[in-house]
Amino acid sequence: QVQLVESGGGLVQAGGSLRLSCAASGRTFSSYAKGWFRQAPGKNREFVAAINWSGGSTNYADSVKGRFTISRDNAKNTVYLQMNSLKPEETAVYYCAARPGGTTTADLLYPYWGQGTQVTVSS
Fold first, then answer.
1. What's the rounded Cα separation, in Å, for the pair 94 and 81?
2. 20 near 38, Cβ under 8 Å?
């Protein structure tokens, strides 16, 4: 059974930092691109960041550039999202996803998803 499990969410004050992790089990995702998405209440799911299989290529939503960093450790089958200078409007459930091939911002092109982790940023 393939599983992606996110962790690291929680409550943080505006301007604070959190580091999300996404551990994969059931198969090896080392050759897969990984992405982070988020969904706030009443809003559509939106792309946050993505990383290719080697970690040599990343892309970010404009809204998080310079504040968020995506990285991966293939030996641990884990992808990370370091989030700095968090804003209240970034309160959402954050999901990791995996797909074969290259990165994309399109959530529908990721076949594997985690259950999500809640991030709440207080003002």
1. 10
2. no
